[in-house]
Design brief:
There is one protein chain. This protein is of the alpha+beta class. 39% of the residues lie in helices and 12% in strands. It is built from 13 helices and eight strands. The protein has a three-stranded mixed β-sheet with strand order 2-1-3, covered by helices on one side. Strands 6-8-7 form a three-stranded antiparallel β-sheet. A two-stranded antiparallel ribbon has the order 4-5. Helix 9 packs across helix 12.
Length: 305
């Protein structure tokens, strides 16, 4: 009886949190894990939202099918509608008291059917990184960013609930990311500075897209099996970049160079995969570049593969 009373009290408090969320306190993204036999319309009806709103919140087309274990955002929750509310986030009063210490203004993703079993994970150690939780991070956003699911992250970290807090260190899988995405998520501040320095030294007079293009060439080389594996080695490879040879690499990069470096790291590649570039007005041995496939011309630079 005591447990029943506690569960009832917990449900009332959590429903209050959901309905009062737009006025004060922490913010929640409610996540429903698709179960056997579920349909989109039934889920929408159960949680008092329209099927169209459910589709839009999850970027689903009219013909999209939902799959067992798929995680769906439940938008615009109406707390007094629907027979299937299951907001029991914590299994005991001790867990409830410990975990409900949430920060005002912070975002949290909450599984609203936590009884759904977590998936089994068998991810190699070299495909896992340690991530330091920052302001505004939720498991839902991290799952989307790393092309995985909340359930996988929870299983990987032995989490009992889907609440994470600023300062936590969690494991995240990178096995579903492309090499370029992995590089963007694991790049170190010193590498961003190196990239900004070479962009500033090589292309500070170029339009912004031209500066991004130079950064993209560096990244393409780091990812290529035909060049060194690190930013430092690629940039300092003998005879490759005039800014390194003539000392302009040592100039302090401006804000635009850093912005171009980050844009290239996001995956923007105006060069279409180029590995080389040259300035036809100043470059020596242009015959060598002209033997390669011409891709694009941006500003004063010609980019080739």
């Amino acid at each position: 009886m005591r447990k029943c009373k506690f569960s009832t009290l917990l449900l009332i408090i959590l429903l209050f949190l959901v309905t009062a969320i737009s006025y004060a306190g922490p913010k929640f993204t409610l996540i429903y894990v698709v179960q056997e036999g579920d349909t989109l319309s039934e889920i929408a009806q159960a949680y008092g939202v329209s099927t169209q709103a459910l589709r839009e919140a999850n970027n689903l087309s009219k013909n999209s099918l939902i799959k067992l274990g798929q995680e769906l955002v439940i938008p615009e929750v109406v707390a007094d509608k629907g027979p299937n509310w299951d907001l029991t986030l914590f299994e005991s009063e001790e867990d409830f008291g410990k975990n409900l210490n949430l920060n005002v203004g912070s975002n949290y993703s909450v599984r609203i059917n936590p009884g759904q079993a977590l998936p089994e994970v068998n991810i190699p150690r070299d495909k896992i990184i340690k991530y330091h939780v920052g302001v505004g991070d939720t498991l839902y956003d991290l799952a989307r960013s790393f092309n995985t699911s909340i359930g996988v992250i929870m299983a990987l970290n032995n989490l009992q609930d889907s609440i994470i807090r600023v300062g936590d260190t969690i494991k995240l899988p990178i096995n579903n990311l492309t090499p370029r995405q992995v590089l963007a998520k694991t790049v170190k501040p010193k590498d961003i500075e190196l990239l900004a320095r070479v962009i500033h030294g090589e292309a500070r007079g170029e339009p912004f897209i031209g500066q991004v293009a130079v950064g993209a060439v560096i990244i393409n080389r780091v990812l290529s099996p035909y060049f060194p594996d690190t930013f430092y080695e690629v940039i300092h490879q003998k005879g490759q970049f005039s800014a390194v040879a003539d000392g302009q690499f040592q100039l302090t990069p401006n804000r635009t160079a850093y912005r171009a470096a980050r844009e290239a790291l996001k995956g923007t590649d105006p060069t279409m995969g180029s590995m080389y570039y040259y300035n036809p007005k100043t470059a020596k041995n242009q015959w060598w570049f002209k033997k390669r496939r011409l891709m694009v011309t941006i500003g004063d630079h010609v980019f080739t593969k």
